[in-house]
Write a structure and sequence with these properties.
heterodimer, A: about 475 residues, 14-stranded antiparallel beta barrel, elongated, B: alpha+beta, Jelly Rolls, 4-stranded antiparallel beta sheet, 8 strands
């Protein structure tokens, strides 16, 4: 129990370097082929590229906008219950969340059209796991303090419960087209193959205990709550069986769902890059504009209704003929009838977390032409935008649609290029998780071999347990820059 | 120069990840967490008109019922109850003395505890009694073994008089305030 709790805490609060979904280091880092995954309209320089399978793009991210592991578990001699009360119950709001996202690319391949060198095509597969849990503030206070004492008359908001998570495999195909010397646009179609999904995001209701109208107290609960799950039941059933074939059955189930055997959906990414002038570029993208229709292995749980109770009540003479000593069970039955718990297997639509990026970049420090050896057709044409600048500065805006609205992040960056072999990007990002997020990304090109590593919130590594946010991305690619 | 710059950057990024620091953590602290909510709920409410009491006569009780009540001995309650208080209120606006006897019964009908209330005719105000269970009161075993409540209301006065109060009644209220240890 303790081990599982510790593991859960590690995963949830970010001891392991998992990441939230902002990829501000990768965005517009066009020397890295995977930048196409965050803006299908990014400037492309390659003739072709292929990621090294399963290690071309690994990203892990985790964030907590509230308490950190260190806040609670630091060996500081403070009473643990006091820490929970002061740093969690009193400090965290219903808008605070714990979130994790991880992505693993199966493969990623891109190539320039032989007959249409303006077009760069890319396709591949990646798996993604994404979980967000909002802090259920009122429910936590109810569990910690109860409905008595000073909480008489307090209305506990059942809508504080909000959670969403999924594991999905994504098949994608994208086209990047240079429309002119100043404009590049791109689009990527996605086919989602869901492995599991769960969400409880539109809950409402309240629980309140007040002075009773007849008896001493009256408790009232109004609930409109639902937990939707798809794919989870099959996994739980296999785990519950706990036989010698459990691992094999689980592998088989995952393999089936990874390759389109589960619930399916469609999505679209769109993006562009536009040169305002030879040194200034604006970009934008919208990612995961899509949905999955969850129809297989669906199990939903509902609690809807309104119930009030002042305990067992007997009014004489009205109830004189009700000779029934099971008044307690009658009361329980009445409440269950007024507030029915239900289960169903109705299909539902789950929407992918929509993301949007926008940026402005200013290039300066003119260097040698980066494209002099480029066989990528379109980029060998000399033009004012083809000059290679050593430095870039700019700003980026990131938005992600979360169950409780759009969550923004603002980034300032500086990028340095030293020939084709090295490039570096540093970022400073402000979002709900951190005001001190400094990131550093490096891209290395040794012949055709490309390696990149992007680390976020580096200051947090001074005490990783105290970090609100951690992120790491890296990968290997083979890139062809010339006609050979 | 280039090499030095990137060596430095690479060292910053790559090396700081595996050798990242963390203050000493003690996850065993979780065992010290105390989650002790105070839960309150009404239990039983009885209301009778004086007319009904008069009609019932004085030789026997106007209300007597064994009410099955498993709330206390639910496993959740039995395992986690630290202490509790049962609050009783009796309000009499009739013209006669009224008594209530509440008996806590176990599954076989044995009486575990008894509370007796006697209230004067109106105007007598509200009789309030708080009975504590746990370290500072009666044994918690009484509550966790209780499976039924026997409630008996008796008329200790005449069966003809009527109070001058508006809508005279006898009202018996009860509620529980329980302190649980969830963790």
């Amino acid at each position: 129990m303790r081990l599982s709790l510790s593991l859960f805490s590690f995963m949830l609060l970010g001891i392991t370097p998992l990441l939230s979904q902002n990829k501000q280091l990768l965005y517009d880092f066009y020397e890295i082929p995977q930048s196409l995954m965050v803006n299908p309209g990014v400037k492309t320089m390659e003739r072709w590229h292929t990621g090294v399978p399963f290690i071309s793009g690994l990203s892990f991210q985790a964030g907590t906008s509230g308490v950190t592991v260190n806040d609670l578990f630091a060996n500081d001699g403070i009473d643990f219950t006091t820490k929970v009360r002061e740093r969690v119950l009193d400090a965290m709001s219903r808008r605070d969340d714990f979130s994790t996202t991880s992505q693993i690319e199966g493969f990623n391949v891109g190539f320039r059209g032989r007959n249409r060198p303006d077009d760069y095509y890319s396709f591949g597969i990646y798996g993604e796991t994404d979980v967000i849990v909002y802090w259920p503030r009122d429910l936590a206070i109810l569990a910690f303090e109860g409905n008595g004492g000073t909480n008489i008359g307090r209305s506990f908001d059942l809508g504080d419960l909000s959670v969403r998570g999924e594991m999905v495999n994504v098949f994608h195909f994208g086209i990047n087209r240079k429309m002119s010397n100043t404009l590049t646009v791109g689009a990527r179609a996605k086919l989602y193959s869901s492995i599991f999904q769960f969400q409880s995001i539109n809950n409402s209701g309240s629980f309140v205990t007040t002075q009773g109208q007849d008896n001493i107290y009256r408790s009232t609960i109004v609930a409109d709550m639902e937990l939707q799950t798809a794919g989870a039941n099959g996994i739980i059933n296999i785990l519950d069986e706990d036989t010698s074939t459990t691992q094999r059955d689980l592998t088989r189930l995952f393999a089936k769902r990874v390759f389109l055997g589960g619930n399916l959906g469609l999505g679209l990414d769109l993006g562009f890059s536009y040169n305002l002038n030879p040194q200034t570029t604006i970009t934008g993208s919208i990612l995961d504009l899509g949905f999955i229709y969850q129809s297989k292995d669906v199990k939903n749980y509902t609690l809807r209704g309104r119930a009030e109770t002042e305990g067992i009540t007997v009014f004489l003479p009205d109830d004189v003929n009700e000779i029934d000593n099971d008044l307690w069970q009658d009361l329980v039955d009445d409440i269950e009838e007024s507030l029915p718990y239900g289960e169903n297997s109705s299909g539902y639509l789950s929407f992918r977390p929509l993301k949007a990026y926008g940026s402005i970049r200013y290039d300066f420090g003119q260097g040698q032409s980066k494209n002099e050896n480029c066989g990528c057709g379109i980029n060998v044409v000399s033009g004012q935008n083809q000059e290679f600048y050593k430095n870039s500065v700019g700003g980026q805006l990131y938005l992600i649609k979360r169950p409780r609205g759009f969550q923004p992040a603002l980034t300032g960056f500086y990028q340095k290029r030293l020939g084709r072999a090295f490039s570096m990007k540093t970022t400073y990002t402000v979002d709900k998780y951190s005001f001190t997020n400094v990131g550093l990304g490096l891209n290395f090109q040794a012949g055709p071999v490309n390696f990149y590593i992007l680390g976020d919130n580096l200051l947090g590594y001074q005490n990783i347990a105290g970090s609100h946010y951690a992120s790491l991305q890296f990968g290997f690619n083979i890139i062809s820059w010339n006609d050979n | 120069m280039k090499r030095n710059l990137f060596k430095l950057a690479f060292a910053l990024l790559v090396l700081c990840l595996p050798i990242s620091c963390s203050e000493e953590q003690d996850f065993d602290q979780f065992d010290d967490l105390q989650v002790t909510p105070l839960l309150v709920s009404s239990i039983f409410y009885l209301e009778s008109t004086e007319e009904f009491i008069n009609a019932s006569g004085t030789s026997e009780s106007f209300y007597s019922e064994d009410v099955n009540f498993d709330a206390f001995n639910e496993q959740f309650v039995a395992e986690r109850l630290l202490e509790g208080t049962i609050i009783f209120e009796v309000e009499n606006t009739t013209s006669k003395n009224i008594s209530f006897v509440v008996e806590f019964l176990d599954e076989t009908g044995n009486i575990l505890d008894t509370e007796t209330f006697s209230i004067e005719p109106a105007p007598s105000g509200i009789l309030t009694r708080e009975v504590a269970y746990g370290p500072t009161g009666k044994s918690l075993d009484i509550l966790v073994a209780t499976s039924a409540l026997r409630i008996v209301g008796s008329n200790l006065g005449d069966n003809s008089s009527t109070s001058s109060e508006t809508d005279p009644k006898i009202i018996f209220r009860s509620a529980a305030e329980f302190l649980f240890e969830l963790q």
